[in-house]
Amino acid sequence: MAIVRNSDVVSPNVSISDIFDHDFWGANLTDSASHKSYRPLVTLMFRWEVGSVGLVAGYMKATNLLLHCIASCLVLVVLKRLNLPALLAALMFAVHPVHTEAVVGVVGRADLLCAVFYLLVMLVYAEMVKNMRSTMRMIGDLMIVSWLATLALLCKETGITALVWI
Amino acid sequence: MSSDTVLLVFLLYAFIFQPMCVIIEILSELALLKDVRKSLKSFLMSQMAIRWSVLVLVTMVLVFLRMWIMNFEQPTFKPMDNPIAASEQLMTRVSMFLLLTALFKPPSNLRHYIARYLKTPNEQHWFDGCFNRFANKY
After folding, report:
1. Do A157 and B7 touch (CB under 8 A)?
2. What is the spatial distance between Cα A27 and Cα A8, in angstroms, rounded to a whole number?
3. Quick one: pLDDT at residue B53?
4. Cys bridge to B120: A21, A97, A152, B126, which one at CB 3.0-4.6 A?
5. Hey, is the C-beta of B64 within 8 angstroms of any chain A C-beta?
6. What DSSP string describes A81-147?
7. What value does the mean pLDDT take over residues A152-161?
8. What is the pLDDT of residues A133-154, one digit of tens each?
9. How many whole angstroms separate alpha carbon B64 and alpha carbon B121?
């Protein structure tokens, strides 16, 4: 539904700026029937994919798998930075069956992209806290963190917790 | 989970839980030092204070923008969107969240364990009793 019958993804005559007014199912956000799921970055990525390689499920699933690999590597890096048993945890993250729904279904892209940005937020923040730097440098890092959290929010609503977690 | 549940949970987190943590940490920090005014001043000048205030501010702005883009309206869901949540039976709705718990059958002698737990004096852990019982049997 969110991909094959979503005009935002499939038809090229919908403009890019319209995507930022529409919900995940291609309906208008202000519409009363809309589910108010605002994930424009995911829709944008689907559109770019469909435009470049066509509507092929295999490619989209391969992209999901790649994103999951990136997320697993990020788990390794983040936990290493926090001095936790990183390799074991990252392996468990990589093979854990709870991620099946996100990785196998193409619409799980929202979760995967959100996870990647979320982990990047954690990484930058951990780096920032660990190294005592000048205040200007810290404010720069905080801006990076805020932008990454905004990107995570634009991929899935749960991304807002990226800042709350810290 | 539906969007409005998500939003509610995060509003609670952002506006109640997070400030609470900050206040608790400030208070515990203050309790350690005697000169309250001085330590408060040094805290307010610290990088941690800048970080926290920026994070709280950005969270509030993002939540506001997210609600602004949906016109501050809640989505209306039809039963078709989530049949289990629309179920009239309470048990169905509860067991959706407690899926694993619902799958496992409680032990038939559960009330013995509960009674033992209620009878056990505070200084002894109820689990010890269970183990003794096990050991006596075999």
Report:
1. yes
2. 9
3. 82
4. B126
5. no
6. HTTS-HHHHHHHHHH-GGGHHHHHSGGGHHHHHHHHHHHHHHHHHHHHHHS---HHHHHHHHHHHHH
7. 76
8. 677 788 888 888 888 888 888 7
9. 51
Å between A56 CA and nearest CA of chain B: 26
CB contact under 8 A, B77 and A163: no
**pLDDT tens, residue by residue, A66-82:** 999 999 999 999 888 87
Residue A36 to residue B63, Cβ atoms within 8 A: no
Which residues of A are less than 8 Å from B66 in CB distance?
38, 153, 157, 160
- List per-residue pLDDT tens for chain B, 138 residues long: 455 556 666 666 666 666 666 666 666 666 666 666 666 666 666 777 788 888 888 888 888 888 887 777 777 777 777 787 777 788 777 777 777 666 776 777 777 777 776 665 555 555 555 555 544 444
Considering only CB atoms, which residues of chain A are within 8 Å of chain B? 29-30, 32-38, 128-129, 132, 135, 138-139, 142, 145-146, 149-150, 153, 157-158, 160-161, 163-164, 166
Q: State ipTM.
A: 0.78
> What DSSP state is assigned to residue A22?
B
Nearest to A112 by CA among A62, A47, A50, A54: A62
Name the DSSP class of B14.
I
Q: Structure tokens of A14?
A: 């919908």
Q: Which of A146, A150, A161 sits opposite B10 (nearest CB)?
A: A161
Q: Is B62 touching A (CB cutoff 8 A)? A: yes
Three-state secondary structure call for residue A68: helix
Count contacts between A and B (CB, < 8 Å): 71
